[in-house]
Amino acid sequence: MRQSIRALGWASRILWIATVVFMVTALYSPLKLLLERQIEIGSPQPSFSNSTITVSIPLFINNTGFYDLSNLNVRTSVADHDGTLISASTTSAENIPRGGSINETHAISVGIGDIISKNLTHLLFNDSTLVLDLSVGLKIAHVIPLQVSTSLNMSWGAPLYDPAIRIVDSPEPYNSTHFNMTAELSFENHSPFDIDGTLSLEVFNERDEFLGLWGGLLSAHSGEPHNEQVTVYIPSDAIFKFSGSGEVHAHFESPMGSLDWRFAYG
Amino acid sequence: MADEGNTHSLLRKILPNVIRAALKGFIMFLLTYLLPTLLMETMMPLDTLLEMPSEYTALVFAFSAIVVFFTVVAELFSGTIFQHAFGISRALVLIMYFIYALNGGVITSAFQIPEQPQLVHIFADLRAFLAMLIFLNLLGFAKSMFGAINFLAERVESV
Questions:
Q1: Spans of all domains in chain B
Q2: Chain A residues with CB inside 8 Å of B44's CB?
């Protein structure tokens, strides 16, 4: 009996020491990475392709801790101020062994098609605040799951803020078949990217009867107001329908995607 | 005269236990409070440590107090059945303490990044740790239980 009690005592002591050492080193391990700045998050790089705006964030982790880091998961979700999800993305790494490192890029993609299909076109015309939820999860020493999360508010600048068309000159005869009318198209590009594409405008009167159209290239620089004089050609037989007010149907085509919207004039 | 003799023999019996209890209590205080505090001070920058919530500091102090108290009383009563009874109590109290301190194994905390408006939430699943700590205390519980049984058996044999 005495021998068993003594054995239990020693086993207990050894296990206590092992557990305490493991606990201290396992909890200190991720802290060490933070203190030694072995976790680096690079500056976001925006890019556009196939109707998608992609923000890439380089992520570098050098595991100088005492244990492997596994099941690394970086999750981001972007939602508008009403909570409608715009984009969600995940980047994961199976294992970062002790002494090893990873160099990943976390990409947050927002498709123009998504914005339109999710009825978020107000983001194209109105400045807003987007909510970015960021969560990083990992397992320390394959045993301790740890998750860090935060929520950031980002201001969103609308690329086509406050679009308006103002008639500068009333329709005047252009040739035997058409009248021309000069109008000024204006909006402000509050977004961080330039807008390049083709724009076509179809002008309708108050009774939604077609009057004329204009088409041309559109180039609006980031952070600048855009004013453009456009000449709309109205067939002679439709000039009597012109009443000075109505609606403009706009169609914009760019490498980022295409967009249709309507706004009133007059 | 006889009283004086009794007091002397009692002191001679108790004094080594008291000295041993004081020494072990001090070593335990060093190991469970001073050493972790010193380690934390050297491993973490001071400003991080100062921002450590006071509840965690209180929990470290409570752990140290429990360990020191049971070490001292077990040593004072060594050679009696109370030594084993305190061993059993210590294991049970520590199990309850760990469940409380580790919040059942799931720890959530939130703090603000200096000069930033947003809150950072931390979630740690320490159930594996908690299981290990409970297992260790159950081992201590079993040891004290066997100790008590052995003590009683030896007493019966000697009578």
A1: 2-99+127-158
A2: 31, 35
